[in-house]
Amino acid sequence: MTTTMSRRHRVVVIGSGFGGLFAAKRLRRANVDVTLISRTTHHLFQPLLYQVATGILSEGEIAPSTREILKRQENVQTLLGDVSAIDVNARTVTSEAGGVRTVTAYDSLIVAAGATTSYFGNDDFATYAPGLKSIDDALELRGRILSAFEFAELEQDERIRDEWQTFVVVGAGATGVEMAGQISELSHRTLRNDFRAIDPRRSRIVLVDALDDVLGSFGSKLSNSAAHQLEKLGVDVWLSEKVVEVDERGITVEDKSGLRTRIQSRTVVWAAGVKGSDLANSLAAQTGAELDRGNRIKVQGDCTLPGHPEVYVIGDMMSLKGYPGVAQVAMQQGKYAADQIKRHIGGKARAEDFHYFDKGSMATISRFKAVASIGDRLRFGGVIAWFLWLVIHVLYLVGFKNRVTTVLHWAVSFLGRGRSQRTTTNQQLVGRNAVRAAQLPDNADPALAERDERTERDQAADRPQPAAKG
Ligand SMILES: Cc1cc2nc3c(=O)[nH]c(=O)nc-3n(C[C@H](O)[C@H](O)[C@H](O)COP(=O)(O)OP(=O)(O)OC[C@H]3O[C@@H](n4cnc5c(N)ncnc54)[C@H](O)[C@@H]3O)c2cc1C
Question: Cα(226)–Cα(213) distance, rounded to whole angstroms?
Answer without folding.
Answer: 10
